Amino acid sequence: MYHPACWIVFTATTALLFIPGVPVRSGDATFPKAMDNVTVRQGESATLRCTVDDRVTRVAWLNRSTILYAGNDKWSIDNRVVILSNTKTQYSIKIHNVDVYDEGPYTCSVQTDNHPKTSRVHLIVQVPPQIVNISSDITVNEGSSVTLMCLAFGRPEPTVTWRHLSGKGEGFWGATRDGCGVLPEGGLHRSSCCGGTAWQWDGGRQGCGGLFVGLVWGLSGVQHRRARCWTRWVTVPRVYPRLPGQGFVSEDEYLEITGITREQSGEYECSAVNDVAVPDVRKVKVTVNYPPYISNAKNTGASVGQKGILQCEASAVPVAEFQWFKEDTRLANGLEGVRIESKGRLSTLTFFNVSEKDYGNYTCVATNKLGNTNASIILYGPGAVHDGGNAASRVATGLCLWAALLARLLLDF
């Protein structure tokens, strides 16, 4: 008869000779019989069962070369490992609160008729996706290049996708390894589509375009569909979606934007998905600085003795500071019956009691650290000839008049 300690050492040594997940067949091909591979999520419990019969004289469970249980005797110092059953038909253990380091081969070893036999089962531990490192919020100047990083961990390895939350719809500007990147106008350059599926977002403005690509159109609101993509390549090519006139690359964990524009500012959402649990989602805010641009500056009419207000609206990041001039003289707040108020992107010049000397041309100047711009605004009285627009509209009107006059001369000629 074998000494128990000698048998255990022999069994442990024998167990190292076999390939994980493949039952060992010695004599009776169906005995002992372990389970198929066991898959559990991190934090759950895993039950390992081994089917035996009354020929068995000794049994043991091992993890690689470590003995967990020999019969009813516990050899492992891990409190999470407990025995469930040790009967004539089944020998099973349970591992509570399973973690990643528990993954691997487990061996059921039995002694029968003085011949050791073993069978193996492989424990697979799934881990929900978790973003472990992501770029901090960033502020850059327009035209700069930006690289956003989003590193994620999980089992299976999660797929990382970037999405720009533009405020005008959920535009999908990212890419995945088995999908297609899409552009706001619905197209891709030729090498950018891979075999797989691309989601179409943002009311149908997104599509999957390029060679051998199925197009999907006619969406509205926040509806979405899927577009199939085909490719000639045997291996899956990388995905390189690009924005119109700009570079825009999403490759796994990194999102690269070259020549960033003000329209590309906002929040960027990184999602890590592996279907084990709900996706892990984090956001990065990208602020794009740009020089002032006066978007609204209209001429205004007011009668003598009445109240008159000139308005100047400028877009800029950082917010612009305003100054008002009449001819070459800078106006001061509270002097000569005028008040200057600037809040956010809007500045107003108020005349509480308009007089003849107040009529004329005023200049609004908007300035921030990246530059400045100005616009001329006219305060006029009753009966004055004016176009009611701003400097840009007056230039456009003048060009139209010259074009009309030139066309008339050509016709007469």
TrEMBL record:
It is found in: Cell membrane. Keywords: Cell adhesion, Cell membrane, Disulfide bond, Glycoprotein, GPI-anchor, Immunoglobulin domain, Lipoprotein, Membrane, Repeat, Signal. One of its GO terms (cellular component) is plasma membrane. It comes from Cairina moschata (Muscovy duck). It comes from the Eukaryota. Residues 32-119, 129-287, 291-378 form the Ig-like domain. Belongs to the immunoglobulin superfamily. IgLON family. Residues 1-29 form the signal peptide. This is Opioid binding protein/cell adhesion molecule like. The keyword Ion transport does not apply. Pfam families: I-set, Ig_3. One of its GO terms (biological process) is cell adhesion. It is a lipid-anchor; GPI-anchor.
